[in-house]
Amino acid sequence: MTAKTALVVVAHHRADSLTARIGDVVAARLKEAGYAIDLLNLQAEGFDPRMTVADQPDWDDRDKAYSPEVQSHMDRITAADLIVPVFPVYWNAPPALLKGWIDRVWNYGFSYGRSKPRLAGRRMLWIGTAGAAEGDEYWASLQNILDLTLRDGISYYNGIAEAAVEVLPDAEGEPQIVDGTGNFTKGEALTGEQRTAHYRALEQRAIERVEKFLA
Ligand SMILES: Cc1cc2nc3c(=O)[nH]c(=O)nc-3n(C[C@H](O)[C@H](O)[C@H](O)COP(=O)(O)O)c2cc1C
Question: Superkingdom of the source (predicted)?
């Protein structure tokens, strides 16, 4: 039996980011679970998130030939059984790097716009890191927004019924709270062993989210 493939998509501009670290941890856990890993680091591979004329949909031609770059990304998605984007939450949304990958690659005639969705049967786990503190007022609405835009708006629209969004909170290791009148307060930043333990717990949490999704 051939191994299933997981496409882990890391969307961050820094190689030493928490996001990149979570991407590695998630890939390692999936490998342990028997998946062949295709690690797509959008920044390292030089992916340009800006839409181009070559890659914008032609609503009269769902068989349009998109650019070779986008076609190669489509091939990687097609080859995957499981797709796991890992990204920092920016303004209640994925960062431009990941958004542009969706805009350009998850295109008309490829992933949507067919009577039989080509990506049906695949699974998708979105893993975001967020500065928000778990349990504060904003936390529940952030989860709802991301569920709506990523799970329903993107995965489901592209024929992937089995999808989930997991958000890791407190990603900056220091509480940041904006109150109802827009006042911004910053708590004390974690340091030393406390900081190490905090980030180790986030990694552990990412692993648990993967295990929950695979179960
Ligand atoms: C432009 C920008 C927008 C952000 N917007 C949000 C936000 O809407 N909600 C939130 O909880 N955190 C937000 N953050 C905090 C990031 O999610 C956080 O810095 C990131 O997850 C940390 O992971 P990293 O070290 O991999 O970048 C934002 C950060 C930046 C730079």
Answer: Bacteria
Strand order in the sheet with 82-88: 36-41, 5-10, 82-88, 123-129, 162-168
The set of residues, in sequence order, having a beta carbon less than 8 Å from that of 25 and lying 6+ positions away, is 203, 206, 207
Q: How many Å lie between the centroid of ligand 1 and the Cα of residue 31?
A: 28
| Ligand 1, atom 15: closest residue by C-alpha | 131
d(CA 40, CA 24): 11
Which atom in ligand 1 lies closest to the alpha carbon of residue 22? 26
The correct CATH number of 5-214 out of 3.90.1150.10, 3.40.50.360, 3.40.50.920, 1.10.1370.40 is 3.40.50.360
